Amino acid sequence: MVKRKVAVLQTVAMAVAEIAYFIESKGLPATAKKFVDEAFIFFESLADTKVEYRFCTYKRWKALKYKCAVYKKKYVIAFISHDTEIIICDFVSSKLLKE
After folding, report:
1. Alpha carbon of 9 to those of 13, 31, 54, 72, 90: distances in Å?
2. Dihedral class, residue 73 (left if φ above 0, else alpha if ψ from -120 to 50, else beta)
3. Residue 71 — left, alpha, or beta (φ > 0 → left; ψ -120 to 50 → alpha)?
4. For the segment 45-57, what is each residue's pLDDT rounded down to a tens digit?
5. C-alpha 17: how far from chain center
6. Which position has the higher pLDDT, 9 or 96?
7. How many CB atoms lie within 10 A of CB 14?
8. Which end of the chain is more exposed for a tag (fewer CB within 10 A), N or C?
9. Model confidence pTM above 0.70
10. What letter would DSSP give residue 46?
């Protein structure tokens, strides 16, 4: 399996941290840590060159030529794909995306 370098923007890391903080505030610190770990493992899995992702359907991201992947049926990850690396640009709840 050939992998590319994965770069995660600070805004994405902050979005994941905010969700983890929310989970932790509900009294589930172990679940919050697990969410963060699994999210970053998923980010690494996007680097596989054998899998090709579609361009985003959200108009603003489509104009920027971002590709999208769905995470846990609840979140959308927008990223730029290059031959040698991918740059994860956004991580949002799919409910927040409006056309």
Report:
1. 7, 23, 20, 20, 8
2. left
3. beta
4. 999 888 889 999 9
5. 12
6. 9
7. 11
8. C
9. yes
10. T
